[in-house]
Amino acid sequence: MRAVHERLGATMTEFAGWLMPLRYGSETAEHNAVRSAAALFDLSHMGEIAVTGPGAGEALDYAVCGQPSALAPGRARYTMLCAPDGGVLDDLVIYRQAADRFLVVANAANTAVVLTELRARCPGAAVQDETAATALVAIQGPNASRILSRVTDLPLDGVRYYAGAYSQVAGCPAWIARTGYTGEDGFEIFCAPEDAERVWTALSDAAPGPGGAGLPAAGLAARDTLRLEAGMPLYGNELGLDVTPYEAGLGRVVRLDKPGDFVGRAALAARAADGPRRTLIGLVARSRRVPRHGYAVLSLPAGAQVGAVTSGAPSPTLGVPIAMAYVEAGSAGPYGIDVRGKTEPADVTELPFYDRSKQG
Amino acid sequence: MSVPVELRYTEEHEWVAIDGDTASVGITDYAAQSLGDVVYVSLPAVGTAVSAGEPCGEVESTKSVSDLYSPVDGEVSEVNDELDDDPGLVNAEPYGAGWMFRVRVAAGSDGEAALPPGLLSAAEYEELTKSAG
To answer: ipTM of the assembly?
Structure first.
């Protein structure tokens, strides 16, 4: 795929040991293409780990916060792998591809940790790293379904959000899932690395643009602003070993009601009872100066630091800088952000910043 | 990537065009491409005294923020207000409509605008960006 990206003029960046496209031209244009039409992403850096065997579902129930055994074949769920103390080791999407086969998709930087933990926690199942044998091409945006339907026989109307099916794209075998990290409708296509270019080109050609251009490609920079607008956490920013899912406002992924023990259960139950120590909030800056990761969040007017920005960027859709931040539980606004020595006021807003179901 | 030969450059990736006692300043194509889409440029007010090598503004892009340095000593005589509405001009035309501010440069003993030592020629700047990778 590297040749494809270079042909498209990509600026490449080193990410978790992978050389990935950061942007092809204007990252803002790539972002807007996903919001208004569709764009292609190469996400082959993501980790894919297969957990298989008759006991795979129950084994995963012990390993992660959710209850993969309760998933019907063909369905997917967002979940987390926690440490015994409740800290987040990684956030995952788990697809039940068949009765006895689960595909665990991990962040590139955490794949090795997830693999080690799953092997240790799932003695009753086979755990195999399929990352190197799997390419991941995503098509995201309101036109994604229409474009993908031109190159696959899979009836996409029958594929619900967070569901997937084995089929073909441009004649290549693929697992096609209606998932993504952009806040738009879209699909993620898992295929063999040697088929990735063919899948990519078929999708690109299925949506001819002006001047012979195909479907636009989008890089990691656009992916980051898209997920931030959609209020989706990024491991290393909103998630890490020092937070539990409850701090991140994602307590719903912890299934304390499932049968049997799981790693982190006692600590997470205590956290659920005590309430989170910190709260993840959304902030919209009143100034054009952009809050960035790590900047202090201050309680105004006194100016005491009550938290820190986890992710911040100029929002292409809203036209103003937005940020997610952790603040101490019980702290109240109004808030300001210390933007390199000058306090810039910011308004608290409900997450997500952007919700496609609320758009006209 | 373009590096016009008639301009002078700084190691901080600004360009300078000298016309009489006025220096026009912007950031280079290389800088604009490295930053990504510019979303906001904070410029010094007209009348501000600026010093060569000292920060006098900020350039915000999607991924990062960078200080903007004055390449010369003098007083800001004009700023590009167009950038307030359309900061993308910095990416589209870094040497043209994306210019940032103008400085009235004090005259030296020879009556010419006194430029600080260390401004780079186009060839020297190109060399710098190549060695930066």
So the answer is: 0.89
